[in-house]
Design goal:
The chain has helices at about 5-25, 45-55, 140-145, 175-190, 210-215, 225, 230-235, 320-325, 330-360, 375-390; strands at about 35, 60-65, 75-80, 85-90, 95-100, 115, 120, 125-130, 135, 155, 160, 165, 200, 205, 240-245, 250-255, 275-285, 285-290, 295-305, 305-320, 370. With about 400 residues, it is an alpha+beta fold. Bound molecules: FE2/S2 (inorganic) cluster and fe (ii) ion.
Length: about 400
């Protein structure tokens, strides 16, 4: 990272800009208003391109490493192109496989998570080792001879970095998370120390809503006081963002209302500023990471197959372990349960009804041209990357 991108410099620059914005009631902006059509969220041909050219080509997060902490711990995940299993190996690494038996394709793992020394197929009881090797073919004296080494589980490219498990949803690709993140975002995530935190009770939601509407909804700092007047809108500022654009990913600073005490003052970023600000990272193509004073939230969005009308949202809270927090276990549990209860009620009562409604009415044939304002900078940058990926023809 260059001196110019040193995080102290970045945070200080953003803080000063944000305070000026708040004083002038303005925000960072995109160059122009962008008109768009409802077909962006309904077109099956576009949804197919997004599935293949986005999720089939670039790394995205599917878990925090502590969700599969021990040997043989696994999770099953529904990705846009594959149903997959991710499993911790004997040597501590992770592997990912398509969750389909190589005999006649039965679903191998039906649980969301667990610990498994052997994958045993429910249909004819073929079995596989945790490293994907085909171990046993039942009644093999009658089945016939074949090269078993070629019929292990199909492997997907997976890697761990910054405490997360990343996948490219395409068996024909290789994964390089650092290269995808680029030096700036790689350094920012390293600085957060997310690998020392624990993922507390991750939540998965299947939504009747296009994944981009979902992602936009959680990049949006314009709706805060209007859609959440009695919850988030009470604590957080609306429509005030200081952006650092890294070309593909971006970082931005927003604020709590407690920052108002510093408006008009010549302040420098110091560690206490985490109490008044939220650092957000958009990790292309589908992830929002929010750094709060006490914890990190991670929101991921992905389509269900090539269906433009359905998506999976995952929400994670990562915080210091009971030991690192210095709290009594009971207190720790109470604290994060309360945190989750608040998040869930805002999601269910306030965000989901609006976002689901958008998906419903945007199926109207005459919905008309809509507008993304200059103030909605994060959504412009998200669109820029989606467009770039969709327009890039993949290698064979
Ligand atoms: S489909 Fe798995 S053993 Fe037959
Ligand atoms: Fe919201």
């Amino acid at each position: 990272m260059t001196i110019d991108n040193d995080m102290q410099t970045v945070r200080d620059r953003a803080l000063k800009k944000l305070l000026t914005h708040l004083s002038d009631s303005v925000t960072d902006q995109w160059d122009e208003i962008a008109p768009f059509q409802s077909s962006d969220y309904h077109d099956p041909a576009l949804a197919e391109l997004e599935r293949d050219r986005i999720f089939g080509e670039v790394p995205f997060i599917v878990a925090h490493s502590t969700e599969l902490a021990g040997k043989n711990d696994f999770i099953s995940v529904e990705l846009p192109r594959n149903k997959a299993i991710v499993i911790r190996q004997k040597d501590g690494s992770v592997k990912a496989f398509v969750n389909a038996c190589r005999h006649r394709g039965a679903e191998l793992v039906t649980e969301e998570s667990g610990k498994c020394r052997i994958f045993s197929c429910p249909y004819h009881r073929w079995s596989y080792d945790p490293d994907g090797r085909l171990r046993n073919v039942t009644l093999d004296n009658t089945f016939g001879d074949f090269d078993r080494s070629r019929f292990g589980l199909v492997e997907l490219p997976v890697a761990e970095r910054h405490g997360f498990v990343w996948i490219i949803d395409n068996a024909r690709r290789e994964i390089d998370v650092a290269a995808w993140l680029g030096p700036e975002m790689d350094e920012i995530l390293a600085g957060f120390g997310i690998d020392r935190l624990v993922s507390i009770d991750p939540h998965t939601y299947r939504r009747p809503t296009n994944w981009k509407i979902m992602q936009d909804g959680f990049l949006d700092n314009y709706h805060v006081k209007y859609a959440h007047p009695n919850t988030a809108g009470k604590m957080l500022h609306t429509n005030a963002v200081a952006m650092e654009d890294y070309g593909r990913h971006f970082w931005f600073l927003t604020s709590r209302k407690s920052i108002d005490q510093f408006i008009g003052q010549d302040v420098t970023w110091d560690p206490s500023m985490v109490n008044h600000t939220i650092e957000s990272c958009f990790l292309a193509p589908n992830t929002m990471l929010l750094k709060h004073a006490t914890h990190i939230e991670l929101l991921t969005f992905r389509p269900v197959g090539a269906d433009p009308n359905e998506s999976i949202m995952q929400m994670r809270v990562m915080a210091p372990t009971v030991e690192d927090s210095g709290l009594a276990e009971e207190h720790w549990e109470k604290r994060w349960k309360k945190n989750w209860d608040i998040l869930i009620s805002i999601l269910h009562d306030e965000d989901f009804p609006i976002l689901d409604g958008s998906q419903r009415v945007l199926s109207s044939m005459d919905a008309g041209t809509m507008l993304l304002g200059r103030n909605e900078l994060a959504s412009h940058l998200f669109r820029r990357e989606v467009r770039r990926l969709v327009e890039t023809a993949p290698e064979a």
